[in-house]
Amino acid sequence: MGMKKKVLIGLAVMLVATLAFVPAVSAEGPRDGTLTAHGDGVAALAGRGSVEISGRGILWFRDVAGDARWTVSGYGEKREFSNGWIEYLGFHGNFEATGSRIIVVLSGNDIDLWAQGRGRFFLWGEGEYQLGPRHGNWSTEGEVLTLAPVE
């Protein structure tokens, strides 16, 4: 993995992980946004809700609140770190998680992503996404976007 890609992955993780999580309750009750995306590069999400992601590369996951439920299938060498991060090197499969404060990052190819909830996300590389009715393209600019209901 090249130095530029390592720096981008680290930046994505730091940007998404350090952003404030958006509160999920309004006067009307809980409402969530929906995101779908497909591409090659780095997909990172942090927030409350559910995530399904598949592809090939390196997957990182952290259950910040300690209440998440997750499943992983496919291939990859699992490593757990003392700070709560779980890493799957050589990941090639599917990952699903639900929690009140989770972070999921996949760096690689053939990334398919579905997320519903509230939080922030970062898509770097080449691909397309749909956020509610809004369609967009992945960027190499490093823009962090909000996952929230469309008003």
Structural write-up:
- The structure is a single chain.
- The chain is mostly beta strands and 151 residues long.
- The protein has one domain (3-147).
- It is 11% helix and 68% strand.
- The chain contains 1 helix and 7 strands, in the order αβββββββ.
- The protein has one helix at residues 3-18; strands spanning 25-26, 29-30, 33-63, 69-80, 85-131, 134-137, 144-147.
- The longest helix has 16 residues, at 3-18.
- The protein starts with a helix and ends with a strand.
How confident overall, as mean pLDDT? 84
The unreliable regions are 19-29
Number of domains: 1
From the alpha carbons, calculate the radius of gyration and give it in angstroms.
14 Å
Distance between the termini: 40 Å
Estimate what percentage of residues fall within beta strands.
Answer: over 45%
Instruction: Please state the structural category.
Output: mainly beta
- How many strand segments? 7
Could you describe the largest sheet, including whether it forms a barrel? 5 strands, antiparallel
Helix percentage range: 10-25%
Anisotropy-based shape = globular
The number of helical runs is 1
Q: H/E order of the elements?
A: HEEEEEEE
Features:
mainly beta; globular; 5-stranded antiparallel beta sheet; 151 residues
Provide a brief overview of the structure.
By secondary structure, the chain is mainly beta.
Would you spell out the secondary-structure blueprint of this structure?
Blueprint: H1 3-18, E1 25-26, E2 29-30, E3 33-63, E4 69-80, E5 85-131, E6 134-137, E7 144-147
Antiparallel strand pairs: 1-2, 3-5, 4-5, 5-6, 5-7
